[in-house]
Design goal:
- The protein has 343 residues and is of the alpha/beta class.
- The chain has 9 helices and 17 strands.
- The strands form 4 sheets. Strands 14-13-12-15-16-17 form a 6-stranded parallel sheet. The protein has a 5-stranded antiparallel sheet with strand order 3-7-5-6-4, covered by helices on one side.
- The chain is elongated and about 80 Å long.
- The chain starts with a strand and ends in an 8-residue tail after the last strand.
Length: 343
């Protein structure tokens, strides 16, 4: 039997790459025969396998007349729910590979038959549907980069983390900036200068004026909540990329001034990506931004006791409605953001 691959296609930075890897993990747990690889152009060259015959025509087909095999391939390529097509013009949603040899031949001389996808594209539109498939039909699964966020709460976290732990020294993820991260660099804690009791992650820069941006008034409200809960009595830090605009500098200054008004010390941490990641990952309490980097740190943390998550709503935005990852740890509390009012 030919090897089957789960193909990781890079898109986005570390956080988005990790969510795509989680999607890969779910399929590898479902079917351990899948082998995990990073995106490889080799798999573009063998998109279909041809079988010299036809499978039974049933209710799961769409008829597309007057189109040749090349045209049908293009029609099928970006339809994740389609498994293949036959040369009669029937686009097939389901194909049972095991039954193909028993089907009637049409005309071998005219190369009639069935084209079955070697690669099935998995994206946000069919991710959960594919996970529920009892049989993945022997196809490689391409975790589509630009069409899939895969940011969903998944129930079997213990099994997922055990799988990642077992493969941490062999599995890589890759960002769209061509940076490789071995999974053990995320799973295993590294030594950091200070382990903080509470860490606030602030993402500005490219989030300014976007739906992901958390206005200062909402951040101050969650800080007030932490203050009332007496959660700011230890070592506190703000993790943030160095501000480069006046607007971002003013935002950070407001945060610092709030701490000063309460006579509470806070440290600004702006380090390399992995150091900042582990500062968040090793905290006791984490106040998350909308950044997937902070979400990943929370999900993989073994130290985190409480996580404040923005209670966001993206259901009015078709491009973001699949982002439903709100519970990185069991003890997750929500705080309001601008989009909360649409819930």
């Amino acid at each position: 039997m030919a090897d089957k691959y789960i193909i990781f296609e890079p898109s986005g930075r570390l956080g988005n790459a990790f969510f795509r890897y989680l999607g890969c993990v779910m399929f590898m747990i479902k079917d351990p025969t899948y082998k995990y690889i990073l995106y490889d152009n080799h798999h573009d060259k063998t998109e279909y396998t041809f079988y010299p015959g036809k499978d039974c025509v049933s209710n799961d087909v769409t008829y597309v007349p007057n189109q040749g095999p090349n045209e049908l391939k293009q029609i099928c390529k970006y339809k994740p729910s389609v498994r293949g097509f036959n040369t009669l013009g029937f686009i097939k949603k389901n194909i049972d590979i095991r039954r193909l040899e028993s089907n009637d031949y049409i005309n071998l001389q005219n190369v009639h038959g069935l084209f079955v996808k070697n690669n099935v594209i998995v994206d946000d539109s069919n991710f959960l549907e594919m996970l529920s498939e009892p049989d993945l039909f022997g196809a490689n699964l391409l975790m589509q980069g630009y069409m899939g966020y895969f940011q969903r709460d998944l129930n079997n976290k213990v099994e997922i983390l055990a799988f990642i732990q077992n493969h941490k020294n062999e599995h890589y993820i890759k960002t769209d900036r061509n940076i490789l991260h071995l999974m053990n660099t995320l799973i295993d804690d590294i030594e950091i200068p200070i382990v903080y009791d509470l860490v606030i992650h602030i993402r500005l820069g490219d989030f300014n004026q976007l739906v992901d941006f958390i206005e200062y008034e909402y951040l101050e409200k969650v800080l007030e909540t932490a203050y009332i809960n007496q959660e700011l009595n230890g070592k506190n830090a703000i993790v943030i990329e160095p501000p480069t605009t006046e607007i971002d500098k003013q935002y950070l200054n407001k945060c610092v001034e709030w701490f000063q008004s309460k006579n509470i010390s806070v440290t600004i941490e702006s380090n390399s990506l992995m150091v900042d990641f582990h500062i968040m990952k090793q905290a006791k309490i984490l106040i998350n931004s909308m950044s997937t980097l902070a979400w990943t740190a929370a999900y993989l943390s073994t130290k985190l006791e409480k996580c404040y998550m923005p209670n966001y709503n993206f259901f009015d935005n078709p491009n973001m409605m699949h982002k439903t990852f709100k519970y990185p740890i069991e003890n997750t509390l929500f705080y309001d953001v601008k989009t909360t009012k649409y819930l």
